[in-house]
Amino acid sequence: MKNILLALSMLALFSCSYSRTSGGLPSVGRQEGGLSEPTKPGEEPAVRFADVKAAVFDTSCAGCHQKKEEDLSFADYANIKSFASEIAVRVFEERDMPPKKKLTELQEQVLRTWLDAGSPE
Fold first, then answer.
1. N or C: the chain end with fewer CB closer than 10 Å?
2. Domain residues for 82?
3. Distance (Å, rounded) from C-alpha 100 to C-alpha 8?
4. Main-chain phi, psi angles of 18, to 5 degrees
5. DSSP assignment, residue 70?
């Protein structure tokens, strides 16, 4: 039930704050291929690390990337931030992560928005 409420909340948030732009593959910091930037300069990003962690990392990544001795741990912001570009490539370009159950369209939108905004904390 919580997942459904989270998904509906995120969908409502994105439908009000962002519009789709045309383009191909997304990349960090690009508008084309991703979602547009916030409409007002200085506006707080709509998606923060806690949102992405709850909607994407905890549900689709942490099951395999949970050990502290691994290079990529989804437990803390600093580690994930250092891998933001690699995450974008693996999820959106190579499409090999996550390997089994792919992200939903909403999860991809949440992750893409966060990456395009510069991966804010």
1. N
2. 2-17+47-116
3. 24
4. -135, 155
5. S
The residue type of 56 is V
For the stretch 66-119, pLDDT in tens is: 765 556 778 789 889 999 999 999 999 999 999 999 999 999 999 999 999 999
pTM: 0.62
Task: Look at residue 92 and tell me if it is in a domain.
Answer: yes
How far is 121 from 103, CA to CA, in rounded Å?
A: 21
Neighbours of 3 (CB within 10 A): 11
Q: Residue 36 domain-assigned?
A: no
The structural domain count of the chain equals: 1
